[in-house]
Design goal:
Elements (H helix, E strand, L loop, with lengths): L2 E4 L4 H4 L6 H6 L3 E4 L20 E10 L7 E8 L7 E3 L4 H4 L2 E7 L5 E8 L3 H9 L6 E6 L5 E7 L1
């Protein structure tokens, strides 16, 4: 089964780009500068930040539905990111190298399956989950910190 991994729309985050740190702090947001081997995965472009790039660390509601699975968590967004990444049939670099928690949801936003996989092996797990007709979409999370990584849909 073919799948698409989709980064977040940058538009809701763009209003924070370039704000002074004090204004960001009032909104519960921190600006982080990536160091060497930073490990800051951007949720828009679905890549790790390079040394010297800036990210905003903020809370994001990744499952806004009014179900028991409504959820939010901290994420990194590269400051200035302008276009959501789309990877068809392959895992983005920031997901490929990490342990992932894959969660399958119905169209009604109820969890119907979940599994853990190394990112490089995730396409097989994704295919199995998307083969279930009850599954409407998947969420990938970075398994260790537990934060939302990307949306996965059938292509």
């Amino acid at each position: 089964m073919n799948f698409i991994v989709i980064g977040l729309d940058p538009e809701p985050f763009s209003k924070h780009f370039g704000l002074p740190d004090a204004d960001l702090a009032k909104r519960g947001i921190q600006r982080i500068r990536a160091g060497n081997g930073s490990g800051f995965p951007d949720r828009v472009e679905l890549r790790d930040l390079q040394q010297g790039e800036y990210a905003l660390l903020l809370n994001h509601i990744h499952l806004p539905s009014e179900t028991p699975y409504r959820a939010c968590h901290a994420i990194f967004v590269r400051e200035g990111a302008q276009q959501a990444a789309r990877y068809e049939g392959e895992m983005p670099p920031s997901l490929r190298t990490r342990l992932l928690s894959l969660r399958a949801f119905s169209a009604g936003h109820m969890m119907v399956d979940a599994d853990v996989s190394e990112g490089v092996d995730a396409p097989q797990v994704i295919a199995r989950m998307l083969d279930n007709p009850e599954v409407g979409y998947l969420h990938a999370h970075y398994a260790r910190p537990g934060c939302f990584a990307a949306l996965i849909r059938r292509s």
